[in-house]
Amino acid sequence: MRSPVLMTTALKLSHRLIYFTGVGICAAIVHLLIVFNLVNFLNLQPLLSNVIAFLIAFNVSYLGHKYFTFNQIQDKKQLSLPHFFLVAASAGLLNETLYYLLLRFTTLHYITALVFVLSIVAVYNYLFSRFWACR
């Protein structure tokens, strides 16, 4: 039988992961919708649309994580905007690089490629947000 402290910690981590996933899905939907609309209605290139969408989805992600995912950390840790921005900026660079490579060297549709990239970058974001941006 596990101790109450371990069970509480596991429960908190489980809830945090659920919130992180929910916020991430919301930010990803915003990101995808913006790219889709910019490409299809303003005739922008997918890579440029991706950068614009990233800058907007960043705000959804930051506010969602600040108020939901990381708001109940017991030891008074704060979600640091500068740290979160550095994590997000590096994730944005990873996102754009992977997206470019997939668009350039595969026959994937731009939306399919973006969904794949956003999924990979989500794992990166969680790990760095959890262990570095939230200090």
From TrEMBL:
Places the protein is found: Membrane
Domain of life according to the entry: Bacteria
GO cellular component terms given for this protein: plasma membrane
Pfam families: GtrA_DPMS_TM
UniProt KW keywords: Membrane, Transmembrane, Transmembrane helix
Domain GtrA/DPMS transmembrane: 20-133
Regions crossing the membrane: 17-38, 44-63, 84-102, 108-128
One GO term of the biological process aspect: polysaccharide biosynthetic process
Membrane topology, from the record: Multi-pass membrane protein
Homology family: Belongs to the GtrA family.
Name of the featured protein: GtrA family protein
Source organism per UniProt: Legionella pneumophila
